[in-house]
Amino acid sequence: MKNIRILAVDDHEMTILGYKYILEDIEFTDYSIHVDIANSYDLGKEKIEISAKSLRYDILFLDIQLFSSEEKRSQTGEDLGILARKVIPETKVVFMSSFNDNYRINSILKSVNPDGYMVKSDIDPKSLKELVNTIMVTPPYYSSKALVAIRKRISNDVILDENDRKILYHLSLGTKTKDIVNYVSISLPSIENRKRHLKTIFGIDKQNDFALISEAKERGFI
Fold first, then answer.
1. What is the model's pLDDT at position 53?
2. What is the torsional sign of CA 199, 203, 206, 211?
3. Does 109 share its domain with 69?
4. Which of 105, 147, 172, 222 is deepest in the core (most CB within 10 A)?
5. Mean of pLDDT values over 154-168
6. Count of Cβ atoms closer than 10 Å to residue 86 Cβ
7. Both 15 and 112 in a single domain?
8. Residue 74, pLDDT score
9. Among 133, 153, 173, where does a domain finish?
10. Do 101 and 185 fall into the same domain?
11. Between residues 196 and 70, which one has the greater pLDDT?
């Protein structure tokens, strides 16, 4: 029977202890499970780097929002996923997050290409067992809410670039147009032009930013 080593990284300790106790208690036909835990970005990064030099993990469970002691920039589970792809490329990477918005999930699909994505509200012992069995043989595995977001994006025939998606995303958060320059590497006039262009391709030329956000959500971009 193969021993599956899992590292679960989440800054909510009760959450990762839940994964550990549930998975180690489940009876798998072909596997025995051992779960290590890390309750911060820094500890997760350290364990991933150690795994690259010694006994590597078979699966990583990564939350997106993580506490970090580094104050220079915000560190995320997405950063850990990118690191893991570089230093332990054979390891399966699964995101376990409360985020179920199309923008965030599809951003991670592009940057990390994970072997699975589970929205936390979909997680239970049955789905965790299905996840392990699936990704160890025929990945990927997506929970139901993650699949909804992915399918909405795939079925859309409008192609937006990364700056378009960032503009829409930050508008949806309530960021003022003049402040979006802090999040994208283009000028304010360029942002205004892109907003007008987006309204045109969405067929809402004369409407306001609220209508733009609503249409972008309907089409699965945010």
1. 92
2. negative
3. yes
4. 105
5. 83
6. 9
7. yes
8. 60
9. 153
10. no
11. 196
Query: Any idea what DSSP says for residue 11?
Result: S
Q: Which long-range contacts (CB under 8 A, 24 or more apart) does 41-45 make?
A: 41/9, 41/11, 41/66, 41/67, 41/68, 41/70, 41/75, 41/76, 41/77, 41/79, 41/80, 42/68, 42/69, 42/70, 43/9, 44/7, 44/9, 44/77, 44/80, 45/80, 45/83
d(C-alpha 121, C-alpha 98), whole Å: 7
Which helix (H) or strand (E) covers residue 97, if one does? Answer: strand 92-97
Spell out the residues 6+ positions from residue 64 whose beta carbon is closer than 8 angstroms to its own: 76, 77, 78, 95, 97, 99, 104, 108
Q: Indicate if 202 and 146 belong to the same structural domain.
A: no
Query: Which amino acid, residue 17?
Result: L
pTM: 0.78
Task: Indicate whether 84 and 190 sit together in one domain.
Answer: no
Q: Which residues contact 87 (CB under 8 A, 6 or more apart)?
A: 48, 49, 51, 52
Question: What's the CA angle centered on 177, arms 171 and 180, to 5 degrees?
Answer: 80
Look up the domain containing 203 and give its range. Answer: 162-218
CATH number, position 126: 3.40.50.2300
Residue with tokens 């937006």: 160
* Confidence tier at 100 by pLDDT (50, 70, 90): confident
Q: What is the pLDDT of residues 25-59, one digit of tens each?
A: 999 998 999 999 999 999 999 999 999 998 899 99
Q: What percent of the chain has pLDDT over 70?
A: 96
